[in-house]
Amino acid sequence: MATAADTTAMRRAVALAARGLGSTSPNPVVGCVVLDASGHEVGAGHHERAGGPHAEIHALRQAGVLARGGTAYVTLEPCNHTGRTGPCAQALVEAGVARVVYAVADPDPRARGGADTLRAAGVEVEGGLLADEAEAGNAAWLTSVRLGRPHVRWKYAATLDGRVAAADGTSRWITSPEARADVHRLRAEADAVVVGSGTARADDPHLAVRGVDGAVQPLRVVVDTEATAVRAGARVLDDAAPTLVAVAEDAAADHLAGTDVVRIPRAAGGRGLAVPALLAALHERGVRSVLLEGGPTLAGAFAAEGAVDEVVGYLAPVLLGAGPAALGDAGITTIADALRLHVTDTTRIGPDLRVTARPASLPTTKEH
């Protein structure tokens, strides 16, 4: 039975884990807190970067001999394998920790089993504490392991009546500078930022992160089916961040020589690219989290494939009455088939409202 002290320590571990967002991929974000035998915090840490020490190692180094007889709180079940670093389960045993509490069981078959190793060594082990909070913070990595594709967060900015542009196509700026700055935080947390050809033509977006200290620049991806939207001089082709242009297998793309291009099969309906194939190609390149910033057409294609894991909408106190809606055709023709969402957060960002929601039901394992 978890105590108030257990919950407090795990919540701190969840907060520590969040510090690794944007810098640990393709590894998970993990936080760890160590209390000594009398319940005082003596060590804390998080996984800072792929290939670097895991959260448990940072926390144990800080705790030193005071970890002996104490309790370690970890947001993810301690790993049980040797990769670029050693197994954390064994490190906890060697440190003399008497009890380990973790939030989420490790779904990776290569690394799981840490709890069994700890129990075999006589360590008391408990799992599931604040699992929902830890899952939410580690959604990208967990999605990639469970589904074999990147986690997709769809971001859009709209008026209060749901328009993403006016009738004449103008859209700058619907939301406030504060909201636009917040989007850069989302970009900094993602491995890739994805837009479609319509956005590339209309906005000539840059897609790099600005104003976030220490940010790792995400891969900029333009879904340019016919290879007609990205041209020489496009801002997305500068050297501020890496860029990938996704085109159809049969598209003429000689003008993109020198640009990283990936060829993707067309969607079954003949319009656009096959979203599952695009996500598979990104996953193969190490992308574990996608920020989808494309317009209504691309967002609709992702939604139709069940490939939207989270929605972040910035709603401005503005009315237009006409113009494109935030979401294009997603294959939904009747209210019974509507994609129902669970709102997880509402926050004022300057004059705007940021609404975060997740589909009420998501697949939990990879389809075969």
UniProtKB/TrEMBL annotation:
EC number, as in UniProt: 3.5.4.26, 1.1.1.193
Binding site for NADP(+): 157, 173, 199, 225, 295-301
Residues where Zn(2+) binds: 54, 79, 88
Reactions mediated catalytically: 2,5-diamino-6-hydroxy-4-(5-phosphoribosylamino)-pyrimidine + H2O + H(+) = 5-amino-6-(5-phospho-D-ribosylamino)uracil + NH4(+); 5-amino-6-(5-phospho-D-ribitylamino)uracil + NADP(+) = 5-amino-6-(5-phospho-D-ribosylamino)uracil + NADPH + H(+)
Residue intervals of the CMP/dCMP-type deaminase domain: 4-126
The protein's required cofactors: Zn(2+)
Transmembrane region(s): none
Active site: 56
Biological processes per GO annotation: riboflavin biosynthetic process
Keywords, comma-separated and alphabetical: Hydrolase, Metal-binding, Multifunctional enzyme, NADP, Oxidoreductase, Riboflavin biosynthesis, Zinc
Keyword Signal: no
Domain of life: Bacteria
SUPFAM superfamilies for this protein: Cytidine deaminase-like, Dihydrofolate reductase-like
Similarity remark: In the N-terminal section; belongs to the cytidine and deoxycytidylate deaminase family. In the C-terminal section; belongs to the HTP reductase family.
NCBIfam families (UniProt xref): eubact_ribD (TIGR00326), ribD_Cterm (TIGR00227)
Protein name: Riboflavin biosynthesis protein RibD
